[in-house]
Design brief:
With about 280 residues, the chain is mainly α. Helix content is about 55%, strand content about 0%.
């Protein structure tokens, strides 16, 4: 592993965020510095720091739906943890891909801070439901897969065009379910997060094209599939129903969405779901 970055640099901030074992740091990191390292080495962290409040498990536990406050709290807890992993992995990518354009890495940091802000939404809603972060176990599923990305193209394929794209679908679905159960605040948070994720997915689409050498706006489904590290597949990267309008606003053309909707796993391309 290369030496740690100099204090006061963006890279040191990213390293501290990923490796911190303080929940307070994860929820409210210090301001990002303005100084970048000159010619930094690639630093590929294999795992994050985990606050003692968290109990990380290997397999998702069975849940009983959203009809009770506890059931909704469990779901919100999972959403919180997904945002935490996303924030960490954006910082991870800043360290892992130092040869990418500065504008790309700056964008990763902006998205990381959005994810931190989303964590705050979920933390407050957990309290309203009578729970707090750490009351349920979590799976570090994103961390089990994303660090296998060999390059930045693969990273944006998984995060921006994959997991965050799927969240456009899932957020709309959960907003409707929360509202039907009378949890208007839970529904509002899902809608807000889903709206803000559009820019994250658009960032992924833009940089997928830029980093892979394709003209901007020519998002190719087969090229995207090829960039996903095994065993990930498009099955993971969509919800039901697909939110066509939100995905179009995020830079995914109809031809891409048609292929995504029609994709089915084969014995050679199984789908694997992240669970909670």
């Amino acid at each position: 592993m290369p030496s740690d970055p100099a204090e006061g640099t963006v890279e040191a901030w990213a390293l501290a965020y990923v490796t911190s074992e303080s929940l307070a740091h994860k929820l409210a990191p210090p301001a990002v510095p303005t100084v970048w390292e000159d010619a930094p080495p690639a630093r590929r962290l294999s795992h994050p720091g985990r606050p003692p409040e968290l109990r990380v498990i290997e397999r998702a536990e069975k849940t009983r739906g959203l009809t009770t406050p506890r059931g909704r709290a469990r779901a919100v807890h999972t959403f919180f943890h997904h945002e935490l992993q996303a924030a960490e992995l954006m910082a991870w990518a800043v360290l892992a891909f130092p040869d990418t354009p500065r504008a790309f890495r700056e964008g990763l940091l902006r998205i990381a801070l959005d994810e931190v802000r989303h964590m705050g939404f979920y933390a407050r809603h957990l309290e309203l439901l009578g729970f707090r972060f750490g009351d349920f176990p979590v799976r570090d599923w994103f961390w089990a897969r994303v660090p296998s990305c060999a390059d930045a193209v693969s990273f944006v394929s998984v995060m921006g065009l994959g997991l965050e794209s799927a969240n456009l679908d899932h957020a709309a679905q959960f907003a409707a379910r929360f509202r039907a159960l009378g949890d208007e605040e839970g529904a509002r948070i899902q809608e807000l997060v889903g709206l803000e994720e559009i820019a994250h997915v658009r960032f992924g689409a833009r940089w997928f094209c830029a980093l892979s050498g394709a003209p901007e706006g020519t998002l190719d489904f087969d090229r995207w599939c090829a960039a996903l590290p095994a065993p990930l597949s498009p099955l993971l990267m969509r919800g039901r129903p697909i939110q066509h309008e939100a995905r179009r606003r995020a830079g995914q053309p109809d031809t891409f969405l048609e292929r995504l909707a029609a994709w089915e796993p084969t014995p050679h391309a199984p789908g694997h779901a992240p669970g909670s």
